[in-house]
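ping. complex inputs:
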Amino acid sequence: MKFLKQAVPSIIVLAVVVALWWYTVIATQSAIFPTPKQVVLGTLELASDGTLWQHIGASLMRVGAGFALAVALAIPLGLWMGWVHGAFVTLNPLFQIMRPISPIAWIPIAILWFGVGNASPIFLIFIASVFPMIVQTTVGVHTIEKRYLRAAENFGVPRSRLFLKVVFPATLPEIIVGMRIGLGVAWLVVVAAEMIALRSGLGYMIMDSRNAGNRYDLVIAGMIIIGLIGLMLDGFMRLLEGMKIVRWRYAH
Amino acid sequence: MPTKIKVDNVRKSFQNDKVRLQVIEGLDFEVNDGEFVAIVGPSGCGKTTLMNIIAGFLAPDSGAVHVNGVVRDGPNRKGIMITQQGSVFPWLTVKQNLLFGLPDDTPNREALADEYAALVGLKGFENNYPHELSGGMLKRAEIARALVVKPEILYMDEPFSALDALMSLRMQNELLRILAIEKHTVMLITHDVEEAIHLADRILVLSPRPTRIQASFDVPFAHPRRVSSPEAQALRVAILKELGVAESV
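pong. complex structure:
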């Protein structure tokens, strides 16, 4: 009930936006820009012939692969850089330079190295999401409260236990924040990458709809679907924040 | 009783930009095995620094701390520190916290953890996370985690200061109850003179910085103590007088 109450204002805003959109299209008698109704009909058309699901599946598969690779590298590397000062001062400048380079700028290189198949967008997603996760994991290790490390030192436990029971779980909340950022960026990038070189995916669907006869109803349908899936992906990551083992960090 | 801790001419200063701050100046005292020694002193006098040196977290500039006749060169599990802030790991349950310090080859490891959780009154809360506990329960968990590794010495730095007055008193009684069973050597830092009188066998009063021992009081009262008794109040006034606070009984 409380959730419903909170949702009411945002639903009103959405309704106002759709109404304005609809009114403007009719008032300006636009020949190309679609009404909300046309967008819904276009979406249903794509959904019923199955192409929509293929495009969504292709995009999600690429994000999944690139993001998984990035997680597999970023978390161990971030933990190592956070714990070993020498690793941090050696590698951090490099990553700080790489991080602000837009993943889009990597597209020509991705095509040069990996061609126009699936490997290119997977590489771009990897590049886009790996740096924020490395940085966030490193920050997580650096911000472990000293009292906990001292307590661990006091009990004189072996290194393996120190890492498994203190350093990793203490860093986990920051790792999850990094993963949220990383997955968000990955989803941004997959659409952009698919616009350039590929023949499947939501990004391709948008470009193809425009090129093949100005189907702007499908362009906007694609945009809305991208937004909704992005919201869902973020929702999954937020479920991770609800785990009991990290609740201490987010509770206040 | 044999000497447990010997503080031998310990000095410590901190360098802050161009200013050199002498915190501890030639401190000497001994703590006997099984003795409960409280240290009181004006705030900022270096009590915590002293405790960190004795527990092995800080090295003195000169002088040495001997524990069991051996020069201390770092913290170890024979002396566990309990601080005001607390350091119960928030990402582990009470039970996992208790198991943390126990080596894998400890006999009856799990049972031992349960036993100490019960000892401090946390039976039934073993699988709770710290953020699900009250401040007093968190303190109990911390004490249990320290005791379960069977330390010889407890270093307590304002352990109950973050608790409200009633809970602090309750935890003091709990501590006495547990110490009656376990017989540890305890060093307690506190700003609360009544707490010191309630708990300690001996009270050392430190001077302002650079700190040295200004006075030492034996607390000859048998447990359970009544801090409101005339003798205890007279002792309290005498200690407060050393701290520069004049008060009539």
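Chain B has seven helices and ten strands.
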